[in-house]
Write a structure and sequence with these properties.
Blueprint lengths: L2 E6 L2 E6 L9 H15 L6 E6 L4 E3 L12 H17 L3 E6 L2 E3 H8 L3 E5 L3 E3 L10 H11 L1 H10 L3 E2 H6 L5 E3 L4 H6 L3
Parallel strand pairs: 2-3, 3-5, 4-6, 5-7, 6-8, 7-10
Antiparallel strand pairs: 1-2, 8-9
Helix pairs in contact: 1-2, 3-4, 4-5
């Protein structure tokens, strides 16, 4: 299993580990969906923290190998299942972003209650560069960051640095690299 769960008091930390860029494949997304389903019934947990292992990437998105004609229906089903689970969780959700937060990874982060990022983080929905659209971004980003910023993200695939993402309202807080852990802890 490429998803690790740690519980400490009323905090549940979910960490995915698919080096080097924590790409989300169908198997990992199934595991994450199952974890989130169990979490929904966990009354002793108040906060769910989501993160990718390491500092290189929260997630560089959904595995391109799962974007084939044969796999797309299943891939979309599991991605949307995770999104629905996160949106319906009774707990507060926090995406702790270090490094790249791209495509489906950015969409997963966007449905959390809080998104905090280290200064070197970047955010993008680059699906347009491979000929497709990011479905969750299409449905949600205009209401989160405004129509024009959403259109820019979705239609150009441009990367936004953490400070710019904060300024446009995509993320809540940015912490200096050396202060990231302390910053995350301040929300718990």
């Amino acid at each position: 299993m490429s998803v690790k769960v740690d519980r400490k008091d009323r905090l549940l930390t979910v960490t995915w580990d698919r080096p080097p860029l924590n790409v989300l494949d169908i198997e990992l997304l199934r595991d994450l969906d199952q974890i989130l389903r169990g979490c929904a019934a966990e009354t002793a947990v108040d906060v769910v923290l989501l993160q990718g292992r390491g500092q290189k990437a929260f997630s560089a998105g959904v595995d391109i190998k799962d974007h084939t004609k044969e796999k797309v229906p299943e891939m979309l089903d599991v991605v949307h299942g995770v999104i629905r689970q996160l949106l319906s969780l009774p707990q507060v959700t926090i995406a702790a972003v270090r490094g790249a937060c791209l495509g489906g990874g950015c969409e997963v982060a966007s449905v959390c209650d809080f998104i905090v990022a280290s200064e070197e983080s970047s955010f993008a929905t680059p699906e347009i560069l491979v000929g497709c659209y990011p479905p969750v971004a299409l449905a949600r980003f205009a209401s989160l960051i405004g129509y024009h910023r959403a259109a820019e993200m979705i239609l150009t695939g441009r990367r936004f640095g953490a400070r710019e993402a904060q300024a446009m309202g995509l993320i809540n807080r940015v912490f200096a690299d050396g202060e990231f852990e302390r910053g995350v802890q301040s929300l718990l």
